[in-house]
Amino acid sequence: MNLENILFSQGFGSRRECRALITQGRVTLAGIACLNPAHEVELSDAFTFGVDGRVWPCRERVYVLLNKPAGYECSREPQHHLSVLSLLPPQFATRGVQCVGRLDQDTTGLLLFSDDGQFIHALTSPKRKVPKVYLARTRHPLDATQLDALRTGVLLHGEAKPVAALAAQARSEHLLELTVQEGKYHQVKRMVAAAGNRVEALHREQIGQLTLPATLAEGAWQWLDAADLERLAQRSPAAAPGHDLA
Ligand code: URA
Known about the structure:
CATH superfamily of the largest domain: Pseudouridine synthase I, catalytic domain, N-terminal subdomain
CATH class of the largest domain: Alpha Beta
Bound molecules: uracil
């Protein structure tokens, strides 16, 4: 593939913009400016290129995770806050990268993004039952009655059937670890309210078998590697049919 097409495929603008980046000397191969848009490149997994001093891999699809801070909306057209997409390199939005599910603007933690529709569907379809682990700081002390209600099922306003957590445990008096698999609107906050408490702060720690890396700063993102994708593809024992929800 030639260099102009590589930049175009990676979301660095229109063909004309990609050509201009190259002829202006802003694109490097192995650290050396390449001024020829037609330069042919042998693509391999190890191939990287530089744009304005930053090195990028060439990826057929984007799979990344973000440590979402509070105050960002999971929308391309946010209403009251900045979009989470503003925390990612602009070429990702050009490529059509989307959030994999949504977090409320005030929820923090693990958020995935991709431009692979099948991947997004596999993680968000209610039929796939992918478990998500949340940490909720609660206004009132947690007690056994609330935890039992969350495990056996609480009726949410507008829902026909009770929704049960896959797991609910108190990490401390005011810190609830809740595992849910549905992804309904404001699900954790509504479940905790229905159990007689209130969420003061919410953080997502895990999706499937993938945990938010402890070393990733709030607001920072990273590529998912092969092991991360494998963790997301693994079917959790908790989500398998016939699992006892109690
Ligand atoms: N449940 C909620 O209530 N909010 C979120 O952001 C995610 C799950």
